[in-house]
Amino acid sequence: MKATTVSIMVSTLADSSFNSPYSIAVDARRMIYVADSNNALIRKITP
After folding, report:
1. Domain count, the chain
2. Which of 23, 32, 35, 41 could form a disulfide with 7 if both were Cys (CB 3.0 to 4.6 A apart)?
3. How far apart are CA 15 and CA 37, in angstroms?
4. Rounded to two decimals, what is the model's pTM?
5. Using CA atoms in the order 46, 27, 17, 47, what is the torsion angle rounded to 10 degrees?
6. Nearest to 19 by CA among 9, 28, 29
7. Is 31 a domain residue?
8. Domain assignment of residue 24, yes or no
9. Contact (CB, 8 A) for 14 and 46
10. In this structure, are strands 41-46 and 7-12 parallel, antiparallel, or unpaired?
11. Residue 15 φ then ψ, to 5°
12. Is position 2 within any domain?
């Protein structure tokens, strides 16, 4: 298996763009995290 570097990007929903979103999670503070496979990042979406 080839190792992949994943970045975390913080943005608002209006500023978010995705390229093959894969999974979504919400934490206790209601922050949304989306795994975006083709962009190789986890996007944290703030209110």
Report:
1. 1
2. 41
3. 18
4. 0.66
5. -20
6. 9
7. yes
8. yes
9. no
10. parallel
11. -95, 0
12. no
